[in-house]
Amino acid sequence: MAEPDNQWGHEQISSALEVEQLDVNLYRSKTLYLPPRARGVFGGQVISQALVSANNCVDPAFSLHSLHCYFLLSASAAVPILYNVDRVRDGRSYVTRAVRAVQRGRTIFIMLCSFQRPEPRQCTFQLPMPPNVPPPDACEGIEVNYERLFKETSDPKVKDFCLTALEERRRSPIEVKLAGVRETEDGMPTFLYWHKARNTPVRYDPAFQKCILSYISDSQFISAARRTLAYVNQGGKGPTTVVMQTSLDHAISFYSDDFDCGDWLLYVIVSEAAASGRGSVHGRVSRERET
């Protein structure tokens, strides 16, 4: 089956997030990306396009501080998504917007996002970046693992998987490098990745940087639950097979306007629990330490 024409703009992050304004509070996707073997459009793209739509309906004096969203149905890459923005509240310090994504007359995704008038004089603190993380230039791109496995295996199914994964990496506007796996104090794995947006010739404004980071937030994320499940059950203590993976809900909190997704960002991911066919995953993004 041929790919929908609108997938070909996905390799550039700026075009992957672009939406077309149809009315005052109504926007439409321009490109949609269906990852190989996925049931629907990449969730990070839906989040980021919905956020671009919401940003267009907010006074630039306000800065996004959080979003909460639910994936209700898989999105087709063959039909544009319509983003309906509801201007829920306009306050002096906070602004709230709700976005409903619709495809073929059905709501596939909803998001509530909150914007704050910045208060730069308030006290700040944050957890430090994990110690002894290898710098990006000392880490391998995630595609190197697939290339190595492809050469080493004779299993045709594994080779096909590697080729599919390499194609997905080639098409992605986000570059990813492996920074290692560590155990927490309780013996659970923590996955570390370096991420950055490819082909960013200009420094985008802070509002769009948060849209890019929202896109990145769904990268290498949901698989942490499956990988943790396999990790803790290595001794055959329980089932490790995951038949299907899909995002149900997603939340992000932002505490900085001073970052550039064209630079390397460290993504630290931990899966906290799994039961009843569901898993909880938490991620934290840090900037590369300046030297």
Description of the structure:
The chain has helices at residues 13-16, 43-55, 142-152, 156-171, 206-216, 223-232; strands at residues 19-23, 26-29, 63-71, 82-90, 94-103, 106-116, 174-183, 189-197, 249-253, 265-275, 278-287. With 291 residues, it is an alpha+beta fold. It folds into 2 domains: 5-116, Thiol Ester Dehydrase, Chain A, CATH 3.10.129.10; 136-287, Beta Barrel (Porin), CATH 2.40.160. A hairpin with a 2-residue loop joins strand 5 (94-103) and strand 6 (106-116).
Key descriptive features of the protein:
Porin, alpha+beta, disordered N terminus, single chain, 6 helices, Thiol Ester Dehydrase, Chain A, four-stranded antiparallel sheet, 291 residues
Topology:
Layout: H1 13-16, E1 19-23, E2 26-29, H2 43-55, E3 63-71, E4 82-90, E5 94-103, E6 106-116, H3 142-152, H4 156-171, E7 174-183, E8 189-197, H5 206-216, H6 223-232, E9 249-253, E10 265-275, E11 278-287
Antiparallel strand pairs: 1-2, 2-4, 3-6, 3-9, 4-5, 5-6, 7-8, 8-10, 10-11
Helix pairs in contact: 2-5, 3-4
GO biological process, one term: acyl-CoA metabolic process
Family: Belongs to the C/M/P thioester hydrolase family.
Keywords: Hydrolase
